[in-house]
Amino acid sequence: MKFLRDLLDKQKPLFEKGGKLESLYYAFEAGETFMFSPKHTTGIKGAQVKDAIDLKRMMITVVIAMIPCLLFGMYNTGHQHLLATGGTAGLWENFGEKLGIGAMLVLPLVLVAYTAGGIVEAIFAIVRKHPINEGFLVTGMLIPLVVPATTPLWQVALATVFAVVIAKEVFGGTGMNVLNVAMTARAFLYFAYPAQISGDQVWTYLGDKTPVDGFSGATALSVVYNAGVEGTQSAVEALASHNSVLGSGLYEFTNLFMGWIPGSIGETSTLMALVGALILIGTGVGSWKIIVSGFAGAYIMGTVMNLFAVNEYMALPPQYHWVMGGLAFGIVFMATDPVSAAQTETGKWIYGLLIGMLTVIIRVTNPAYPEGIMLAVLFMNVFAPLIDYYVVKANKTRRLQRATV
């Protein structure tokens, strides 16, 4: 490492003021601070608040919290491929082959997202003459985790560029965005290229192989929706008896919770999302209020749907909404985005609660959007400032009333 440090110190004058590569200073500075702690200190005089965490440590913590979802998603991608093509039936059979297939599909998506987004970030930093922030460390990981493993690489690159520019840089960059950048990328793909991110055929990688008899690529949300339309059996019965290469039981509650199902790379396992939640809450990076209220909102609205059930989808037990689709992943990693979420403590409860409730409403009442968490998070991103405004206003009103008594 000393060799690398000495090399950077030797090249640094070229990028500093007056050097031949002065215009690229902030790109150089980004690489330097990514590898080493910066040597410079603040020149601001007066009182300062010193903390053990900065933006880099915060973003790295979120990335670490996502690693369980990433690793599980890679393995499950290979697992679903071998299930669909008749290569295996057991969860832990062909372990190395499954992990290899998953890595072959998932890692290029991660690399493309980081590369495309990193180039955009560097361009804006050079043009605006400001340091490159570490915010994209998280976004670059989130985007691949919320898409199917079969998504074309060029679409991931295009969605990443669109999201970074439209949802982040036009608002001023890191810390200024109104919308969650990763969810914006997913929404772009959903509306621009729906054939690659919706339907039953995109969630399982088949390659050049033919699926075995009985294979169905339908997700749990699709199975429940069809049960609600057909009305021939309850949603739970439809999930438990879903015809698949495993026979019945693919979509039983335990399997849904563990994540051994088709879906977006990082969203299938509620268990891995909860592991990430514990890391975020334990380190103080993620708001436990948003996470708890988000799950509570989904459960409450699921219960309300049960009370007014006119079809089997509305009669689905509320706890099933926790383990289907990307609700758990979205609440843990998207809703808790410290920039686009509510900032007041009371507002966080309201914000999370409404995300959970809206997710279930969109799922059950609007078949055009079977995965409601995407629109719920983006919708509440827009209303988060309004929630904070009224929370602060209510606090001021109460204080004024006490002062005048």
Outline the secondary-structure elements.
Layout: H1 2-15, H2 25-35, H3 55-85, H4 95-128, H5 136-145, H6 153-167, H7 181-192, H8 220-230, H9 235-240, H10 253-258, H11 270-282, H12 288-307, H13 320-323, H14 327-334, H15 345-365, H16 373-404
Cα Rg: 23 Å
**Given the structure, what is the number of helices?**
16
Instruction: Compute the average pLDDT.
Output: 86
Low-confidence runs: none
Largest sheet: none
Briefly note the structural class of the backbone. mainly alpha
Total beta-strand segments: 0
Shape assignment? globular
Primary descriptors:
0% strand; single chain; 16 helices; mainly alpha; 405 residues
Question: What does this 3D model show about the protein?
Answer:
- The protein is mainly alpha-helical and 405 residues long.
- The protein contains 16 helices and no strands.
Write a short abstract of this structure:
By secondary structure, the chain is mainly alpha-helical.
